[in-house]
Specification:
Blueprint (H helix, E strand, L loop, with lengths): L3 E4 L14 E5 L2 H5 L2 E5 L9 E4 L3 E4 L3 H9 L3
Antiparallel strand pairs: 1-2, 1-5, 2-3, 3-4
Amino acid sequence: MSEFVICIDSESNPASLIVGKVYRTLSDAEAQTHGLLRVLDEDDSEPDGYLYPASMFVPVDLPEAAKRALTAARV
């Protein structure tokens, strides 16, 4: 999965995810075997992110400058 994804469905978690927003993912092989992604969402209190169904996101390939900016902003 891509290091960055766009949320396409936040119906089950509207307070935590925004449709159309780019989120950073963290590697989690175990979660992926269950169809989940570890995502850094709107809750800054959890540095390890939260697990969400992968179907709620689509991968996105960003230019390096955008990746650096989003990583620095902890998106």
